[in-house]
Amino acid sequence: MDRILWGGATSASQYEGGFTDGKGMDTQDCRPYLPRTSDATTATRLLTKKLIEEAKDPSSDKFYPFRKGTKGYEYGLQDVDLFKELGLDLYRLSISWSRLYPTGEEEIPNEKGVEYYDKIIKKLHENGIKIFLTINHYAMPLAIVEKYRGWTNRKTIDLYMRFSKFVMAKWGDLIDFWLPFNEINAGYFSPFNGVSLVKNENKDYAYNDVFLSLHNQFVANAKTVKLGREMNLPGKFVAMVSCFCYYPLTPSPEDNLELVKDEQINQWYCMDILSRGEYPYYAKPFFKKHDVTFEISEEDRRLLKNNTVDIVSFSYYSSSICTVQENSSQTAGNLVVTTKNPYLKASEWGWQIDPIGLRNTLNKVYDRYQKPVIVAENGFGAHDKLDNGEIHDQYRIDYFKEHFDQIIKAKEEGVDVRAYMAWGIIDIVSAGSCEMDKRYGVIYVDADNEGHGSYKRYKKDSFEWYKNFINEQRSKN
Ligand code: BG6
């Protein structure tokens, strides 16, 4: 069995900043800084027409978090030096769609944007760091949302294909893993992030819009896989969902049934389609119940069937609880709210820490899809304190140790785990709460919640720890 590659990950909108050089406005650029409210409040900020209008006003300064990121656009090459020093086997980055295609409709990509990715990708490659490329991590050009209603429109599939085709043609020889969409199931539980749906004030998203948008993403995913294979690209195609490791609150049959239902739609639905190539049996009754009426053509069904992914991957931060009981006490999780688990401690943001849940998830995912598995994201968001140039983040080291131990056990149990990527390997803006305070990196960036600071990089204690760990793992194989 192949050894596990140990890596780190970032996303363009949270890391790069660089709201310049022809970059177009994207959906994440319209998300303002809003301080965290309470633990149980889901941190997902919604995109409304009102916010979009405010974000277009150049004098407004409340939209800086994603526009500054942690200045990867400026410091990217130096950061690759740090990744090299850290000894990363693999680095996951995403391409900002609107940096290459400011409105999504240009025939030729923005030269400055191409130059930026070109130098980063080449430097990673020259330094022997394998590359996991997320083609689209949440953000999409705002113009596509305004003109076509984003993923609800099939036109968006063509625009995405223009973008993905360019990326594959330009960097195809250098990329080891291709991920067409980050956490594709976010389209369901976080429609703004996942499928860029704009919310009508006081009105819920329509299920038909959500599932139609997801269908169009599945088609774009399959077309990308098809094209990449026709181009004979050496890299493998990956699909990714966010996993929540569900437990029933009680042993009652009702709570257990609730778990099965929650798992199906929240966690497996998208992966069943991208990995098995078919809509699952539970989709039809679910659609009927929720008035989802869009039609799926035979041509689309064939495309999905013939272009499934090579590898399945997931993000995992914490486990969740399912229950039919109302009024159970709540806590936050990755883009969702769940019930508190008395057996687990939680981060300051309420995300419950559960390393065994990661091993449990690895086994379930492998068992269900029988394909190699990658942990595309995992990590610990915490307040870090810069103290005379040092950051003593023992809590993050403990989190890593406990989670890595479970990954290695899963591998020993026979799960074909191929890679692990620590999320936010360098500090970046939080996707959920648009703040700097929630840091995941082993590299600290001196920036605060208001976007002030030197943006200088510092190695945290976890940097040395991860470096030694990767070294040890490498020498064992
Ligand atoms: C995942 C996303 O859902 O969780 C990342 O793919 C995100 O973009 C990560 O940053 C952690 O969430 P947060 O809200 O702590 O940044």
From TrEMBL:
Pfam families: Glyco_hydro_1. The keyword Plastid does not apply. InterPro entries: GH, Glyco_hydro_1. Keywords: Glycosidase, Hydrolase. One of its GO terms (molecular function) is beta-glucosidase activity. This is Glycoside hydrolase family 1 protein. Belongs to the glycosyl hydrolase 1 family. One of its GO terms (cellular component) is cytosol. GO terms for biological process: carbohydrate catabolic process.
